[in-house]
Write a structure and sequence with these properties.
Chain lengths: 480, 95
Amino acid sequence: MTNYITVIGLEVHAELKTKTKAFCSCSTEFGSLPNTHVCPVCLGMPGALPVLNKQVVEFAIRTGLALGCDIQKFNKFDRKNYFYPDLAKNYQISQFDQPICLGGHIDIEIDGVPKRLGITRIHMEEDAGKLNHSGATISTSDFSSVDYNRAGVPLLEIVSEPDMRSAEEARAYMEQLKAILEYIDVCDCKMQEGSLRCDANISIMPEGAKEFGTRAEIKNLNSFRALVRAIEYEVERQKAILEDGGHVVQETRTWDEANGVTLSMRSKEEAHDYRYFPEPDLVPVEIDDAWIERVRGELPELPAQRLERLVEKHGLPKYDASLIVATKAMADYFDAACANSKDDKAVSNWLLGDVSAYLNAENITIEQFPVKPENLGELVTLIKDGVLSSKLAKKVFAEMLKADKTPKQLVKELGLEQVSDEGAIAAIVDEVLAENPQSVADYKAGKDKAIGFLVGQVMKKSRGKANPGMVNKLLKEKMQ
Amino acid sequence: MKVTVKDVEHIAGLSRLTIPESEMEKFTEQFNQILNYADILEKIDTEGIEPTPYVLPISNAFREDVPQPGVTHEEALENAPAVYNDGFKVPRVIE
């Protein structure tokens, strides 16, 4: 059997976090009653004229700089003509031959091997309305209902080079891109809600071939899992066609999540005839160096820089740091917890251990996590200072999940304060020594290990509250 | 002939226009007349001249990102031929 190489390029649509649409002042709020954030412009009424939202350009420049692109000084918009009811105007305002950003890249790392994936271009455009189908799927519906609330919401289309060679690389690219867009605060990046969408161009070619195979474009990938599954399915589908001596057809396919397959949508031949021409209702956008440099100066810390900081300043292992920085909210939580902690590595361990386990079990995100970061920091500090054993800390943590209380408060309420009163501990030590003459004898005979057992007995009697350092000291003194 | 009857059929299809069979020849001829006329421009030497997508001497006409009310839900649907689930009802969208 022939070995095939998979070639993947991704087109990502990111909805910008502006308050208003790209070309009119309608709100971009998500989840409202259909057709309530609409006006003559986004409803395509004759004579209505678009005016560009300045924030769209601002966000596009910021995104381009964060992804290492060249910002183009002269920008125009173009009309992409097509008949589909998701846009009332029968054209989409987009950028055709002169996108705002050219070049750029995203760095990924898989199993410690770094790879740089190219970005071809980024352009500004408007989103289309949402079709709600009468049937279960688009293909089985007799009619649809159109909601234009989303029509005109600004999008950036980020087009990658066909640089990815596996589903894993595509996933890593998407994860990195999502993290960067979150860090620079231009997009909500909620794949399920559709604020970050991904189409994948997938082809395969026999090993050693000079030219890429015919590609299929897969739409409706609204999760990382869907992206990975769709690529894996599509590669197998195309292999089966080629092995049978057939030809892959260039077409658009949709990912059917329920059945785990891709399905043909429509022939691209005619659909591609978009007859682009310059949008005569808008004037050009000219971006000068001062504008670009101002935006560059305001760029926040990016995921790669944050990773470096977590490794260098907070002493985290690179792998742990990469997990923390993958989500901006998690990285922000880490920083906030560390501000109130004496042990950053322990904060990271808690986040990747007990906290992540809780988030997964409850199926919530770190933004919904009930424990305030400063309280997690305090808990870690209590362990570091010897006030709490790690075992009791877990007990306190369980209580913190139930009520918004500080660890110190809970330690008091639960009666978990470590006993550091020498008199009280000495009394328990005496009891333990009297009950375990054999261990005492062993210790005196030079078996240093025997003291561990005795410490354990004292801790048990004190229900874990005795200060272990003091227990050790007193035992040694009394057995001299 | 720059465009053929077939091209005109294709363009009419993209534009959702129905052109009667009897008028096809006429339209094709007119299309060609327009294109031939535009050919006059091709004779001008445009070497070193930037394309001119816009003729107005203005750029950067922006709007601030401040929401304003649009039309109401009822007004929006007033022109809809049919309404379904608070939306514009449209026929099946895929062949």
